[in-house]
Amino acid sequence: MALLAERGPTGVTAGTVATAAGVATGTFYNHFASVDAFLEAIALDLVRGVEIGRDTLSEIEHDPAVRVTIGVLQLLAMADTDPVSASAFVSLMATRADFRARVRGIVGEAIADGVDADRFDVPADQATINAVLGTTLQSMRSRFLGETTHELAPDVARLVLRLLGVPSRSASGIVNRAQRTIDSTPIAAASL
């Protein structure tokens, strides 16, 4: 994952992975049929983390606006706590259609839940999904590049809520509730 984060998908070869792992290139092929299969395994691992987080959140938090906020805050925190995974996540979102489709599906479902619960007043369409993901991914990228600080995470979460049609007077309370939930509950992985 570190090679993916550092070099992007086009910079990952069987040889670079084998060298980083301290094994012969042939050993790489004992585990993966191709570099694409290797990248697919990384993508699957990351998306499973998102899915586990989503499932955990749905059991402990019933307000879809708070769940979306927790997902945004966790993804932004990943840029601080696990910059390699955060960078790999952003890279895979930009380059792997299969990964992007699964994440977009999770985000779309989260937005649709909020619309159904009358928490969001925007449609759960491609433009809305793009706005939420674009804001979150760019903020992650800015964070692991050192262009911003983690202190801006609540502002980003409030912006996402505003994009979803949550009134500004409600957004701060939702962000505060989401942060309290994060602080008091062991949530497995980042999710939207």
List the helices and strands and how they pair.
Layout: H1 2-7, H2 14-21, H3 25-31, H4 35-60, H5 64-81, H6 83-95, H7 97-116, H8 126-144, H9 153-163, H10 168-184
Helix pairs in contact: 2-3, 4-5, 4-7, 5-6, 5-7, 5-8, 5-9, 5-10, 6-7, 6-8, 7-8, 8-9, 9-10
Structural notes for this entry:
The chain contains 10 helices and no strands. By secondary structure, the protein is mostly helical. The protein has a single domain (35-184), classed as Tetracycline Repressor, domain 2 (Orthogonal Bundle). Helix 4 crosses helix 5, helix 5 runs antiparallel to helix 9 and helix 7 packs across helix 8 (126-144). The radius of gyration is 17 Å and the shape is elongated. It starts with a helix and ends in an 8-residue tail after the last helix. 37% of the residues are buried.
